[in-house]
Design brief:
With 220 residues, the chain is mostly helical. The protein contains 9 helices and 2 strands; from the N terminus they run αααααββαααα.
């Protein structure tokens, strides 16, 4: 029997992950079996096991894809914004959710709705002790530190009040973005432009040109 090429192995791996995302988005992690994924991928169950020894291994990889979109966009926003505000970082990530598809770091273009639904389920799985929880905690801790670094630059530029601890601001960013993702997944909320505009109004840099309210009234 001829050996399978590395290119073919990678193609099959992507087929399996694509099938898993579709099954997980449609039926949920726990309602989906390995034969379900193999059937969706057009592979035998035996072939499936040659790539992933268990369903948990597939869940870990799909969850990693979902979190990579969130963490990757935030990381890029910190890098490319000289002096970001909390609103800048939130808007940079949420703005990407207006598309129907997204591209993974490996170049694969995938359906964003499927990934969002998988990501929301992965949040729930990450509440249980285990490998997924450990990975999520480690990855998000590193990301919060990166965001805090960006917010310090915003403070140095006078765009963020100096009284705000950057670490606390980072927690705010990490809370608002998943909140938008949850609303999209559960309620079908898709007003990206309206959400981004509201974020800038609520969390953007203070308007230093505005007069204090007391100065707007004449003295008696």
């Amino acid at each position: 029997m001829p050996r399978i090429t590395e290119e073919r192995r990678e193609e099959n791996r992507r087929r399996i992950l694509g099938a898993a995302r579709r099954c997980f988005a449609r039926d949920g992690f726990h309602q989906t079996s390995m034969p379900d994924i193999a059937r969706e991928a057009g592979l035998s169950t035996g072939a499936f096991y040659r790539y992933y020894p268990s369903k948990d291994d597939v869940v870990l990889e799909v969850a990693g894809q979902a979190f990579s979109i969130l963490t990757g966009r935030l990381d890029e926003a910190v890098d490319r914004t000289a002096a970001p505000t909390v609103a800048d970082l939130v808007a940079a990530v949420v703005g990407t959710f207006g598309a129907q598809t997204t591209r993974l770091p490996d170049g694969s273009e995938i359906d964003l709705d499927e990934l969002v639904l998988c990501g929301v389920q992965a949040w729930g799985e990450a509440t249980r002790p285990g490998v997924l929880q450990d990975r999520v905690r480690g990855g998000f801790q590193a990301l919060r530190e990166r965001i805090a670094t960006g917010l310090r630059r915003g403070q140095d530029a006078g765009l963020i009040p100096s009284a705000l601890p950057p670490e606390t601001g980072a927690h705010v960013v990490m809370a608002v973005v998943p909140g938008f993702v949850m609303q999209r997944a559960v309620f079908g909320y898709r007003d990206v432009d309206g959400f981004v505009a509201a974020v800038h109004t609520l969390l953007g840099a203070p308007d230093t040109t505005a007069r204090p309210a007391s100065s707007m009234h004449s003295q008696d």
